[in-house]
Amino acid sequence: MNNYSKIGVVLKTEKSLLNFKFIPCFSGNNLFEIDDGKYAKIHSPPSQHFTIIFNTFVMMTLFNEVNARKIHGQRNIFEGLKRNPVFIGIWTGTFVAQVSLTYS
Predict the structure, then answer these.
(1) How many CA atoms lie within 13 A of 39 on its CB side?
(2) What is the Cα–Cα distance from 44 to 21, expressed in whole angstroms?
(3) What is the CA radius of gyration of the chain?
(4) Greatest extent of the chain over all pairs of C-alpha atoms, in Å
(5) Could you tell me the residue ranges of all domains in the chain?
(6) Are 69 and 77 contacting, i.e. CB atoms less than 8 angstroms apart?
(7) Mean pLDDT: which of 5-14, 46-55, 86-95 is highest?
C-alpha cells in the first residue's frame, strides 16, 4: 500500500465518521422524535439528544480502538485479540462504564 492509497483510505474513513457524527447532531431530534435540548436553561438535566450524540462518539472511539490494532493492511482485526488481556480489560471496562453511566 503506497502513501497515496493510505491517504485515500484515511479521507474516506473520516468522511464516513463525520457523517455518523453530524447526522445525529443536526437531524437527531427529527430522526428519534425527541427534544433537541439546544435552548435549555443552564443547569437543566441533560437531554436525550446530546446523550445519543455522546454515546455515538464513545462507541465509535471504542470500535476505532479495535480497528487501529492492524495498521499494515491486514483484514482480520480480531486476529491475536485474545493474546492481549490488558486491551480486552480496558475496552470492556470502558464499554461497561459507558453503558452504566448512561442508564444510571
Answers:
(1) 2
(2) 24
(3) 17
(4) 51
(5) 3-102
(6) yes
(7) 86-95
Q: What is the structure's pLDDT at 100? A: 93
Q: Which of 91, 60, 59 is nearest to 78 (CA)?
A: 91
- C-alpha distances in angstroms, 45 versus 21, 27, 83? 22, 21, 42
Mean predicted lDDT score pLDDT of the chain: 84
**C-alpha to C-alpha distance for 2 and 72, rounded to whole angstroms:** 11
Nine cell digits for residue 32:
428519534
Residues of the chain by 3-state class (helix, strand, coil), percent to 5: 65, 0, 35
Rounded to whole angstroms, the Cα distance separating 25 from 27 reads 6
Assess contact for 96 and 59: CB atoms under 8 A. no
pLDDT one-digit tens code per residue, 32-55: 888 887 788 888 887 888 888 888
Give the number of other CB atoms < 10 A from CB of residue 25.
Answer: 16
* pLDDT over 90 (residue 94): yes
pTM: predicted TM-score of the whole model, two decimal places: 0.71
